[in-house]
Design goal:
about 45% helix, two-stranded antiparallel sheet, alpha+beta
Length: about 160
């Protein structure tokens, strides 16, 4: 029995290490490498983040960020979700827009701050970006984001 318990513990620890090796990029700040000390757990599986800000964002809408992370190929731990999880994921409707127009390396969600512009909603990673970088020149910021392909809801 002790051998079996030891074997299970080794398998578990090894599997966590494998995921850390496989998942190299934060699923929210996609230009950042993971920090193995910054983690969330989803249905018993560890997902690595780069910082506490990403953990906070994840906690506001974990199933949404999980679906986006899978869609972007950033969370290999869930490459093949269980049937039960797949049903949950199928209920989540992803926004057309995936990234912040002012911080294009940051994934947004329906809970992200937003503005309504030309009859459509534009999501941002942080409230202060709207105040500091959008409000001063919304037409210029919009043009730059459109040219970068960050606002597919306007295509």
């Amino acid at each position: 029995i002790m051998k079996l318990v030891f074997s299970l513990i080794v398998s578990f620890v090894t599997s966590i290490g494998v995921y850390a090796a496989e998942q190299t990029i934060c699923p929210i700040m996609v230009d950042c490498e993971i920090d193995e000390e910054e983690v969330v757990e989803f249905e018993g599986t560890v997902i690595y983040m780069c910082c506490g800000s990403c953990i906070s964002a994840w906690e506001r809408n974990p199933i949404y960020y999980l679906k986006v992370g899978i869609d972007l190929g950033l969370i290999p731990q869930f490459e093949k979700p269980s049937d039960e999880l797949q049903k949950k994921l199928d209920e989540v409707e992803l926004l057309e827009q995936r990234f912040c127009p002012l911080r294009p390396e940051n994934v947004i969600s329906p809970q992200s701050p937003f503005v309504d512009y030309k009859g459509k909603r534009i999501y941002f990673y942080r409230d202060r970006d709207i105040d500091r970088r959008w409000i001063g020149d919304p037409d210029g910021a919009f043009k730059t984001a459109r040219e970068a392909g960050l606002l597919p809801q306007f295509d």
